[in-house]
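Supplementary Methods, section 5.1.

A reviewer requested that the exact input to the structure prediction be made available. We therefore reproduce it here, unchanged from the version used in the analyses.
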Amino acid sequence: MDILDIRGVKISGIVACLPERVVENRADCEDLFPEDALNNIIKATGINKRYVVNRGTTSLDLSIQAASHLLEKTKTKAEDIGATICVTFTPDNIMPSDAPLAQTRLGIPKDSMGFDIGMACSGYGYGLYIASTIVRGLNKKVLLLDGDTQSAYVSKTDKSTVPVMSDVGTATLLEPSDDKNRWKFSFYTDGSGREVLKIPAGGAKHPTQIDDLDYREYDDGSKRREVDIYMDGFEVYKFVAQDASKFIDRFMEELDLTPDQIHAFIPHQANMYMIKQLGKKLKFDDDKVWKSGDEFGNPGSASIPLTIAYNANKHFTNSGEIESLISGFGAGLSISVAKINISRDGFYNIIQKEGN
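The structure derived from this sequence is encoded token-by-token as follows.
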């Protein structure tokens, strides 16, 4: 296992921007499932409501609003930002990438980097590592945006995705630091499992055709287009329960870490049952497993910064530092895991976009 080391970087703050609409799962899914089945699904996933955008709002819109709020509250000048990075699989356009538009709207100087990372569930860990290396290289602040508008790619009649997937945009500000904290990262990739969670049409391999917009009915009664997200829930669960749990456990062993040494385990909020089982397998007490999915659903890789923004202010220790283990897992198939510090000096908040 390769362990990547980062020193001299800290998180100045994280802001999440929720979409305009709150959807109650029971009301939204009553036409998809019999009452007993719906009760079981809500109980099993632990997701009671989700936040979804109004038509025309994108994850970039949400992330830019989050970033504006973050820069204002941390009194950060746009000219102090050396790079803008967007983690998303739902960009405004296939080309160009989102980051240049974010950079322009936020007034960040033109003589700086701006690029996207096209990943899903594990993307925040990748973004955090790449952003951190740029902070070190430039000795400047870096803005990491992470968000997805999954609702644009979810069939309203797909039983696997409707009850769990949501939307959000987040902003994380990183800056150089003199403290002695050392962040550790590791990554796992298995492309042989890429078929279990994907959008079949719309890429260069399968450009969208007219018939890709037709709904097809599947064995479970779901109706889905080829431009919608397909998820094999059982295979994804198996990947998390087996591969992800073993990889995270191995990461902790390599660093000689025990659950007692970690203040917070912050996993991707795939669903509440899944992360509860993952926490148990890794021997974390339940109160150390930070959650947000029960309140906001599963918004993809941005579930990690959303969970930090939702929980951080409630969990600071006397030292003002939260030793944290974060992990994203899913589409790819891929896993990111990192040991980081969350500081009381940072700014953490959740805001909501006003309706159009």
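The chain has a mean pLDDT of 93. These observations are discussed further in the main text.
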